[in-house]
Amino acid sequence: MKSLRVGIVGAGQLGRMLALAGYPLGVHCLFLDRSAGTPGAQVAPTLLGDLEDAARLAELASRSDVLTFDWENISGAALKPLETITRVRPPRAALEVSQDRLAEKALFAKLKIPVAAHAAVESKQELLAATRKIGLPGVLKTRRLGYDGKGQFVLREAAQIDEAWDAIGAAGLIYEKFQRFSREVSLVGVRSAAGETVFYPLSANTHGGGILRYSVAPFAHASLERTARLYSKRVMNALDYVGVLCIEFFVVDGRLIANEMAPRVHNSGHWTIEGCVTSQFENHLRAICDMPLGSTRALGHTAMINFLGKMPDLERLLAIDGLAFHDYGKEPRPGRKLGHCTILRRQSRDRNLALAEALRLIEWA
């Protein structure tokens, strides 16, 4: 079998881990990014240029058997011309719908996937009307470009409307009813071009300041897992999806409320590198390159901890049995994801141990 060439728009840590997963498969990755100092550029060749530069994108596509992305804010208009040059996976339609929270919720609702009560907001007057109709507390969000807690304001009382509008007010917002959840969980699924689907076990996620702090998987809950898989399959089939798709859910009164989806490999799936037979990164490449999908079986219980803003003491962590360390090669910056580690415990009774160790490591990280 000849080597496959995968073009990746964006060379962040997700791209880096895709490239590393590709080497054993004979997959060679080529990035497009603005800088030669990115995490991906440290492990694979990189074209330098703006991520929506038409000429650079066309060059990337012409040198690739399939094109994918680790930067989900590239516009559909920039990708459309590339579809005549090579295959673009996941499909442009999935990227476009995920970029607009209102369109995303409309898709979920169409597919009978529960979502929080919400309303489009274009002015302060519409925000006031939305709070009266939907109620408080609620969350005002930008419809586009928000991630890791950016572009959001939690309104707990009507007196905060002016403050919320001063913080992020503009046309193109969405107001959502605040969800009093017992858990945040995510499901990572993979679909091939032939329609074959596989799913990883649910992951239980804990955020701080809107940024994922740690995940523990599998989150063993048979009925929620069945429901999450059903919802994910509906989305993937509706979009003729190819690759990894992650959907984040709130668990509210024992049922799933869809929060958002990511048409790419996802931070809450990093545990699969050490915790499953086949990682989400390898399976994404398998799917987009028309290879058979790999087993998603968990090898035990795994905790994944993000390193935010600064890296911890490497020697101290490496002394822990079963710990795997990942450094993304990024310059420290407050709140920036610089790396992660995982702890795998192979016995079924070790779920609580993995969680306890994760909590202890949070104090170090």
Low-confidence stretches: none
Estimate the strand proportion: 25-35%
CATH H level, superfamily name of the largest domain:
ATP-grasp fold, B domain
**Count of DSSP H/I helices:** 12
* Counted beta strands: 18
Helix content: 25-40%
At CATH level 3, the topology of the largest domain is D-amino Acid Aminotransferase, Chain A, domain 1
Q: What's the gyration radius in Å?
A: 20 Å
Question: Which word captures the global form?
Answer: globular
Estimate the mean pLDDT confidence: 93
Please give the CATH architecture of the largest domain.
Answer: 2-Layer Sandwich
**What is the CATH C level class of the largest domain, in words?**
Alpha Beta
Sheet having the most strands = 9 strands, antiparallel
What's the structural domain tally? 3
SSE string:
EHEEHEHEHHEHEEHEEEEEHEEHHEHEEH
Distance between the termini: 43 Å
Structural class comes to: alpha+beta
Supply database-style keywords.
365 residues, Rossmann fold, Dna Ligase, domain 1, 3 domains, nine-stranded antiparallel β-sheet, five-stranded parallel β-sheet, 12 helices, globular
Topology of this protein?
Layout lengths: L3 E6 L3 H10 L4 E7 L12 E3 L5 H9 L3 E4 L6 H4 L7 E2 L3 H7 L2 H10 L7 E4 L2 H11 L3 E5 L9 E4 L5 H8 L4 E5 L5 E9 L5 E3 L3 E6 L2 E7 L4 H17 L4 E10 L2 E8 L9 H4 L4 H9 L12 E8 L5 H5 L4 E5 L9 E9 L5 H14 L1
Parallel strand pairs: 1-2, 1-4, 2-3, 4-5
Antiparallel strand pairs: 6-9, 7-8, 7-9, 10-11, 10-12, 10-14, 12-13, 13-16, 14-15, 16-18, 17-18
